[in-house]
Amino acid sequence: MIPLPPLALLAPILLLAVAAMSATRPNSRPGQLPRIAEGAALATLGLAIAAVCQLLIQGAGTLPFGSGPMLLAFRLDAVSATMTLLVSFVGWIVVRYARTYLDGEAREGAFHGLLLATLAAVLVLVQAGSLGVLVLAFLAVGLGLRQLLLFYPDRPEARRAAAKFSLVWGVGDGALILAAGLFWAAFGTMDLIAMGIAAQDKLPLAAQVAVALVVLAAALKTATFPLHGWLTEVMEAPTPVSALLHAGIINAGGFLLIRMADVVQASPGAMAALVMLGGFTALFGASVMLTQSAVKTALAWSTVAQMGFMLLQCGLGLWPLALLHIVAHSLYKAHAFLSSGTAVRAVAAIRRPGPVAAPGVGAVAKAFAVALVLYAAVAVGFGILAGPKSAQAVALGAILIFGVAYLVAQGLADAAPRALTRRTALASFGAAVAYFSFQLIAGALWGAALPAPPVPDALEWGLIVLAILSFGLVAVAQALFPLWAHHPAAAGLRVHLANGLYLNALLDRLIGGFRAPGSL
Questions:
Q1: Of 23, 262, 254, nearest to 126 (Cα)?
Q2: Which of 285, 377, 420, 478 would give a disulfide with 304, using CB separation of 3.0 to 4.6 Å?
Q3: Cβ neighbour number for residue 13 with a 10 Å cutoff
């Protein structure tokens, strides 16, 4: 394959060059450095757009350096171009925001340098074409984010969050390094595309163990249950760091799985583990999120739930939808963190609502029946127009429609006005149409670069049924919550959930709590 001119690789080089400027005066006023940093981030976005044009003109390709286990390759295809554009856009917004947010800080220049260096590492990560580049980029991202978490090194909470992050991220790095060695032993190559082709045959034992390690690394890097605690404590770092997490850092584990989709999908056990771990993390994170009173903490727990749902999508083999999830969640959540202060003022200014109509058991049952009937009708319509969908895609849509069923239940309550009933029914119909429409868009954009979902076997069908039942029961319990919210048991459960079932406290005890080591 003819190597492509490395247009997209100019982006991390540019960011690192500007980041090096901050090293000369890390503790002094940065002068024009914030403006230069913003300009570099904007130029990076321009290079990402150029990379998309390059892909459209020249097609996908790999640029290799070296050979054998020391191969360093970079890939330009639909997946890498999408992630490069996403990371560049979110990164530019974060750098622009940080120029005002950090104005006047004693170490403002150092922050901009660390921000750009971390962004550069993420851009290398999403353009990786070999395991060697993936490993080195993950190591660099971890180092950069740790220093950002320690921007206020005198805060014990910041040192604790950095220690937790380093522990979890470092174990993930170790798992990925071991996986790289096993993949080399199994396939004799470090090229990700060549590995995917080799995985079409039966995986040897070494490759099966390597896939399990990749799944472990992805789970750790997406802050899944039970080692999610560090993510909920990143609020000790400046707000731009919380937004930066969604520029390819907290979802880097999902990107790792998507980049190695052919290899991961060749292991039914790995796919099953992703479904179970991702589904449970999604339910756990969403339940805890509902009990949080602080806006940014609730957003962090929401990210835990969303990353779990992304792993569930990967486990079902819905790779284009998982990539779409990364894009949509990154844009939404980065904006949510950067606007969290404004949101607090807006909510405080809203006039408190009056009594809310609480649906009974009958209304909840009718709501779920209505939502599922509307969803089934839309699914049949799209099946006729665009062809049948996989069982995994239909099941995922049923899980998503359960959330809309909660709204429909409010509209079917006895005290609800008819206008509300009509609106909630239309919301269910609209959500179903949107789901299948976005599925078609994701398939058109990335379907050719990613494997199709596997034909479900007995294990897959069992996991699909288990996921639907689990999410359905939680949705029903949430809809019926007003009926039993005042029970003493509900109050106790709320306290336990608000504390994340104390799993974070156990991790604190393991690492020494507030006695965690300080900054470098």
A1: 254
A2: 285
A3: 14
CA angle 343, 359, 283 (to 5 degrees): 55
Predicted pLDDT at 336:
80
Count Cβ neighbours within 10 Å for each residue of 254-275 and write b for 16 or more, e otherwise: bbbbbbbbbbbbbbeebbebbb
Instruction: Find the DSSP H helices in 127-222.
Output: 131-149, 156-187, 192-198, 205-221
Look at residue 78 in the predicted model and tell me its pLDDT: 93
For residue 125, the surrounding DSSP H or E stretch is helix 108-126
- Provide φ and ψ at 453, rounded to 5°: -60, 145
Residue by residue, what is the 3-state secondary structure of 418-435?
A: HHHHHHHHHHHHHHHHHH
Domain extents in the chain: 10-338, 355-484
Q: Which positions ≥6 away from 450 have C-beta within 8 Å?
A: 79, 258, 261, 319, 320, 323
Per the structure block, which two tokens stand in for 107? 């170490």
User: The tokens 């179970």 sit on which residue?
Assistant: 276
Calpha distance 204→221 (Å, rounded): 26
- With a cut of 50, list the residues of the chain below it in pLDDT: 1-3, 353-354, 514, 516-520
State the DSSP code for 224: -
Q: What does the pLDDT read at residue 173? A: 94
Q: Which residues contact 222 (CB under 8 A, 6 or more apart)?
A: 250, 251, 252, 253, 254, 307, 308, 310, 311
> What residues are paired with 419 via a beta bridge?
none
Nearest-angstrom CA–CA distance, 405 and 428: 7
**Using CA atoms in the order 49, 51, 52, 53, what is the torsion angle rounded to 10 degrees?**
90
CA–CA dist 338, 299 (Å, integer): 11
Looking at residue 141, its pLDDT comes to 94
Distance (Å, whole) CA 169 – CA 252: 11
Query: What are the respective helix, strand and coil percentages of the chain, to the nearest 5?
Result: 75, 0, 25
Query: By three-state DSSP, how is residue 296 classified?
Result: helix
- Whole-number pLDDT of residue 502: 73
CA gap 367, 359 in Å, rounded: 10
Which helix (H) or strand (E) is 364 found in, with range?
A: helix 361-386
> Tokens standing for 405?
């069923």
What ranges make up the beta strands (E) of 389-488?
A: none
d(CA 299, CA 495): 18
